[in-house]
Amino acid sequence: MRERRLVAWGAALWTAASLALAVPQVAAAVPRECSYISATSRPILTDGDTGVAVKQAQCLSNMWGGQPPKLTLDGVFDSVMLKKIKWIQGCHGLPESGVIEARTWQVLYHPALDCYNPYPA
């Protein structure tokens, strides 16, 4: 009887571990401090743009951990932000255009926990 319980327990643990590997790991929902614009407002942004939508993208990009630098929340899409956006796009298999469009907004709101692309020097 005890042996059956151990086998059942082992099978349950194996199933749980298998399911955990199949579920992609993503970060938590948008933090409260990134509320410069509505999450449904996702304008196309390019290098040189300014405003609250840029500030929102900067804030969201700062949710990435590790090596990438934290951007200053100044609402200016500059060369430092362009480099980081291209890196984020590459981490998600998107074209590294540096343009923040619908697919890039999606990954900014739902960042991967890890990126295996080294941050460019």
From TrEMBL:
Task: Report which residue ranges the record marks as coiled coil.
Answer: none
Which Gene3D superfamilies does the protein's record reference? Answer: PGBD-like superfamily/PGBD
Keyword terms: Signal
Question: What's one Pfam family here?
Answer: PG_binding_1
Q: Which InterPro entries would you find in this protein's record?
A: Peptidoglycan-bd-like (IPR002477), PGBD-like_sf (IPR036365), PGBDSf (IPR036366)
Tell me the first and last residues of the signal peptide: 1-22
* Peptidoglycan binding-like domain mapped to chain residues: 71-108
What's the protein called, per UniProt?
Putative peptidoglycan binding domain protein
> What is the phylogenetic placement of the source species in the record?
Bacteria, Bacillati, Actinomycetota, Actinomycetes, Kitasatosporales
